[in-house]
Amino acid sequence: MAEGQITRIQELVYVLRVGDVMKKEVIEVAPSTPMVELRAVLRDNRISGAPVVKDDQLVGIISIEVFIGWLADGGPDCAIADRMTRNVISICEDEPVIQAVNKLKPRGFGRLPVLNRHNHRLVGIITNGDIVAGMLRKLDIDYRKAEMRNARSRHIFEDIDADRSALVFEYRVVDGTDLSRAGASAGGLKTTLLRLGMSPQTARRAAIAAYEAEMNLIFFAGGGLITARIEPDTIRLQVADQGPGIPDISQAMRPGFSTAPDWVRELGFGAGMGLHNIKNCADRMSLTSTVGKGTRLEVDIQVERESEPARDITET
Predict the structure, then answer these.
(1) Which of 21, 110, 111, 115 is least surrounded by CB atoms within 10 angstroms?
(2) The whole model's pTM is what?
(3) Given the DSSP bridges, would you call strands 167-174 and 223-230 parallel, antiparallel or unpaired?
(4) Which of 42-51, 114-123, 158-167 shows the lowest mean pLDDT across its residues?
(5) How far apart are CA 164 and CA 233, in angstroms?
(6) pLDDT tens digit sequence for 97-156
């Protein structure tokens, strides 16, 4: 059995996009704004920091901590550009919320500027509070939808007259650094499972396992194929690639171990938890790899029979 139940809250950080939860009305300042004026900006808008923008492009970020440090130095006459942080960690609006969590938590950031991927313009800002509020809104919407569809659960396998039956779905994953399609295969699989009448818990476990496998294919293997074989009692995910392979599988399975290059880490990936998270979602997991030839992963998830409560908003 899997180590624990996957809650709807845990799943939402993979499903929701940054643009779904971010604040779109952003208080921004210009680099030429005098530091002495920053106090009023922060106080009047009740914020603890602001992005610095010039010609519609993000050039820095200024926080209340920096402002306090400026005061401690005697409040010298200078512009925000002289005190702002220039190497800003940002995120794109089309990225999954899990990426914002991965960037905020380890670094202790209070906020992340959100950019449009194509023109790099500032379109919002996201904080931990925004993520929580966004998930609560989504939970409430899900609860209302669940009440409407509880009586319409589909049982497609019960209507098939055969000794053995299965549905097979394939998802091709390509490599690249464009995250606009990240999680598309996992999201499509989850939608399909719910439409087949699978329990939300079963769909969550399969979707998270597929998401982690999808990210590994994109960043480490140069793409690959995810095949989902759905039987009445089992969902089997088969993930195959022709990438560089894994030299030491036991080491790769250790939580926190990662060989991610710098550009992957800068995107918020490479924490070394992908395979570990897949194992936590699986009832059975098999991983084989040949250096220079590729890797094959199989994950079995048992289909839950019991009904899941429609609302799990109190789960943590």
Answers:
(1) 110
(2) 0.53
(3) antiparallel
(4) 158-167
(5) 11
(6) 888 888 887 677 778 999 998 898 999 999 888 888 888 777 765 555 554 444 344 455
- Quick one: which of 91, 93, 73 has its CA closest to 83? 73
Sequence spans of domains, the chain: 18-131, 154-302
Please give the full DSSP string across the chain, using - where no structure is assigned.
--SS---HHHHHHHHSBHHHHSBSS---B-TTSBGGGHHHHHHHHT-SEEEEEETTEEEEEEEHHHHHHHHHTT--S-BGGGTSB-S---EETTSBHHHHHHHHHHHT-SEEEEE-TTT-BEEEEEEHHHHHHHHHHHHHHHHHHHHHHGGG---GGGG--SSS--EEEEEEEE--S-GGGTTHHHHHHHHHHHHTT--HHHHHHHHHHHHHHHHHIIIIISEEEEEEEE-SSEEEEEEE--SS--S-HHHHTSTT-----HHHHHTT---S-HHHHHHHH-SEEEEEEETTTEEEEEEEEEPP-SPPPS--TT--
47 and 65 in contact (C-beta within 8 Å)?
Answer: no
In this structure, the strands spanning 91-92 and 111-115 are parallel
Amino acid type, 284: R
User: Torsion over CA of 69, 75, 81 and 87, rounded to 10 degrees?
Assistant: -10
Looking up tokens 């496998």 gives 213
> In this predicted model, what pLDDT tens digit does every residue of 15-39 receive, in sequence order?
788 999 999 989 999 999 999 999 9
Residues with Cβ within 8 Å of 146's Cβ and at least 6 positions away in sequence, in order, are 200, 310, 311
Residues 154-302, CATH architecture: 2-Layer Sandwich (3.30)
